[in-house]
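Q: For a teaching handout, I want to show students what a protein-ligand complex looks like in token form. Below are the inputs, and the small molecule is adenosine monophosphate. Please produce the holo structure.
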Amino acid sequence: MITKKLVFDRNREEEWDFSEANEIIRNGGLVAFPTETVYGLGGDATNPEASKKIYAAKGRPSDNPLIVHIHDFKQLEAIAKNVPDDARKLCKAFWPGPLTMIVEKNETIPYETTGGMDTVAVRMPSHPIARRFLQESNVMIAAPSANTSGRPSPTIARHVIEDLDGKIDCIIDGGSCDIGLESSIIDLSTDIPTILRPGYINKEMFEKALGKEVRIDPGIIDANANKGIRPKAPGMKYRHYAPKGNLVVVEGNDENVVSKINELAKTAFAEGKKVGIIATDETKDRYETGNVVTIGDRNDEDSIARHLFGVLRDFDDLEVDTIYSESFGTPRIGMAIMNRLLKAAGHQVIKVD
Ligand code: AMP
Ligand code: MG
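A: Here is the structure, written as tokens, with adenosine monophosphate included.
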């Protein structure tokens, strides 16, 4: 299959032409498109054949449900068995935006889209290209991240091309994604709202909007401390984001982290290994060996989130054997960043103080 590439300039809305993409999506084909979180791989959420194609293109296990993207709250009412009050509150506070809600589904969305579950994950994205695509096609679009299963999520169109060129009908290139981490997922199908995947919208923000306490799924906090507890979002149990090199996170105060990484890098280098280091703008000049890549500014946690997946992919291109990373437990979205980084590292952490 030849994958059609459309390039839309984010600042020239009047030039965007969705006619081909609309045609493809309405006929059960697949279109990758940018959102404010990461690129999504879209198909008609009401068409079981389109959902099957998404799993096949990604090599994704079919028990890992897809997120349904909408542009209007009425569409949530059309696919949910009932819309909880909490969903209305969260919609007011965070939609359109990087929030996915889990509610009980009715028969409109087939089991092929929900991985056999009686609940459905729903999100209203804010990215202007995603919004217009949803409005103009008037299709509810099932879209997981547009990467091969197991690879880091794509934050620019080149990442999508690397993984899916020749396997899907179309890619809309709309530049880089603003947030760079997948949406926060909250389960509203149970008594107490439960965060199933941390993201840009954090626990405090949920609690403020809902006026009550929310839980965090114990399966996602610390994989080691909770051995045997299965995460409730099926996708969270798979090894994700894995770079080809062996990634180890070093945690502690800045001074100790830099010296430990320098020591580890020298040892690995002496063993003939190609070494990568994930540093920050503040520390990048203090490393003595290896391919040093800066992930962003320590005082700007959004920049760290935005670059994380791209940095992991860059190390694949550099074909490094071993990667040492600093730790990023930043105040607001540190939990979301560390959730991805620790998964990518298979939870290999060295603590230095
Ligand atoms: P992705 O879009 O690739 O980030 O993957 C979607 C994520 O949403 C996966 O981690 C899924 O397991 C999760 N998800 C989707 N639908 C549901 C659902 N009905 N219940 C729980 N988790 C879900
Ligand atoms: Mg994904």
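A: Two things your students might notice: The chain has a mean pLDDT of 95. Residues 4-220 form a domain with the DHBP synthase fold (CATH 3.90.870.10).
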